[in-house]
Design brief:
The protein is of the alpha/beta class and about 375 residues long. The protein has a domain at about 35-190 and about 285-370: Rossmann fold, CATH 3.40.50. The chain has 6 helices and 12 strands. The longest helix has 30 residues, at about 1-30. The radius of gyration is 23 Å and the shape is globular.
């Protein structure tokens, strides 16, 4: 009887300890924040798309999770979305923190890199994943501020200073940096009037027979972001797919409005800016293809579009352009009419710069975009 009682007490102690251990593990898992998101389609053979956000103005942290959801839920891709974060606050998005984007090692298994960053100065142990990816010759899609994706100080010790927007150093191939060398252009200018003149997409002559423009007609693409200026002609074998017609805002400017008073129903093209320069003759390309090959690497394909802010993704034509470019980039047949419907609850905020206090108070978490 005494022996039985001792055994029972021993079992209770073991069970109790096990419960405590299990509870502790559960708590530990809860306090480990997600620093990136992965959307799985359930297909073990799915192509892997890594989407890198990190810009201070155009809400890439809102745009890329939605694009990833469309690609995963509608088209069966596996998608990993990365975010800018202060390392002292892992899992909390801070678009103003330019020195850290955790999870870039996901590029080691990526079939496509989609980059939407602005003036980042990432440490070498993160930049090496981007550099290795590009050396592999795998495809790249650059969105909006990706033309000026990186910016290192002149006195920086980084081994990747040549990625800087406007680079003028000894590595002559890299003149003007990643934007020009890989994507086709660096930061040049706001061609349209920022927050006052929107962008209407016109399919170029070359684009009419290009798979990326499949299912897209003149005017299908519209966004409240203005047309970026580029130097014409674009370098190398670049091919314009979509041209950006600068459109006049017909309504009143409204700082509190999501679209700043602009609407897709605006019908009047802008002829000249206030300095007398013609804005739509010629039109600037807002989407183009080109090949790239960095020193020591294999040749690859690039697609660049200067439209694509979070509020631009409210437009079906913009979403179709991006989805089509994903298929094209990975040498897959572009669907005749790809399903580009919004997935879940997508309520983007207006593009704008936000100060550090905003990000401190906002405490926007990576998991908020699941």
């Amino acid at each position: 009887m005494k022996k039985t009682l001792i055994l029972l007490i021993g079992c209770l102690v073991i069970v109790s300890c096990g419960q405590k251990t299990e509870k502790k593990s559960s708590v530990e898992s809860q306090v480990t924040p997600k620093q990136w998101l992965t959307f799985n389609s359930g297909n073990a053979e799915a192509k892997h798309v890594v989407l890198i956000s990190g810009d201070e103005e155009y809400r890439s942290e809102e745009a890329l999770p939605q694009l990833a959801k469309i690609l995963s839920a509608k088209h069966g891709f596996k998608c990993t979305v990365l975010f800018a974060q202060d390392p002292s606050k892992p899992g909390v998005i801070n678009a103003n923190y330019v020195n850290n984007i955790p999870g870039l090692d996901a590029l080691d298994s990526a079939d496509l890199m989609v980059i939407f960053t602005r003036f980042r100065a990432l440490p070498d142990d993160q930049m090496k994943f981007i550099d290795n990816y590009l050396k592999s010759g795998k495809p790249v899609i650059g969105i909006r501020t990706a033309t000026h994706a990186f910016n290192f100080d002149l006195d920086s010790n980084s081994n990747y200073k040549h990625y800087s927007n406007g680079y003028e150093g000894d590595k002559k191939e890299w003149v003007d940096g990643f934007g020009r060398f890989v994507l086709g252009e660096k930061w040049i200018s706001h061609h349209g009037h920022h927050k006052h003149e929107s962008t209407r997409g016109i399919v170029s002559k070359e684009g009419k027979s290009h798979p990326i423009a499949k299912g897209i007609e003149d005017g299908d693409i519209w966004g409240p972001t203005d047309v970026y200026g580029v130097r014409l002609p674009l370098p190398g074998n670049s091919k314009p797919i979509i041209l950006g017609e600068v459109m006049k805002r017909e309504g009143e400017f409204n700082e509190a409005d999501l679209l700043y008073g602009m609407r897709p129903t605006d019908t009047i093209p802008v002829i000249k800016n206030d300095k007398g320069a013609l804005l739509n003759d010629p039109m600037m390309p807002i989407a183009w293809t080109k090949s790239y090959q960095i020193p020591g690497g294999i040749e690859g394909k690039a697609f660049t579009t200067t439209i694509g802010a979070a509020t631009d993704l409210l437009n079906k034509g913009v979403r179709r352009l991006l989805v089509n470019s994903v298929f094209w980039s990975m040498d897959m047949e572009v669907p005749v009419k790809a399903d580009v419907g919004i997935v879940g609850d997508f309520k983007p905020t207006a593009y704008e710069f936000r100060d550090d206090d905003y990000w401190l108070k906002k405490q926007l978490k990576v998991e908020d975009f699941e």
